[in-house]
Amino acid sequence: MPDDDRALMERLAALEAEVKAEDDKKRSVRDAAEQKVKEQRAAKQAEQSELRARQAALVTRKKRASAGGLEDLPALDTLALAKKASDVKQDLAVKGGKSWVTSGLASMLLGPLGWLYAGSFREAIPASLAWVLFALIAGKLPMLLLMPVLIVVLPLSGIAGAMYAAGYNKKGSRQRLWGKDKKQLPKGSE
Q: Is residue 189 part of a domain?
């Protein structure tokens, strides 16, 4: 073999050794990175299993305390809430009573005029007259000025209307929301 070919072969062998060394270096870096990821996963998994064990211990401790004479509070809360919901439903759906939905919608759309459906006449009539007077005066104002007032007043009126209907259904007659009815004193005791 001529010297040029031999030098070329030696150079090729050196390049192959260099490429192999570089591949080995990359492989060792990749293996180290994979090992690090595996260790992180194992640490995270150990942390999660420890958390599960602590949660299980808390749950079993609560169960033991509940079995030891303390009442199961979540179950009682659920029962109390269900009873309240049933009571409210019964209050709202009395036969021969006023519909709280109708009262609320009428009061929200018509303002205090809707209160006349189920509300106390002592409160509904003056409020309705004031509302009509306000409407007559406000009719001369630009709608841009009225909208913020109506956005607040009408939903509140709807809530009051629904409360009037609920009070009507509870007592069987029109009830006042604000103030108390004066008790009727027998004649001669004034």
A: no
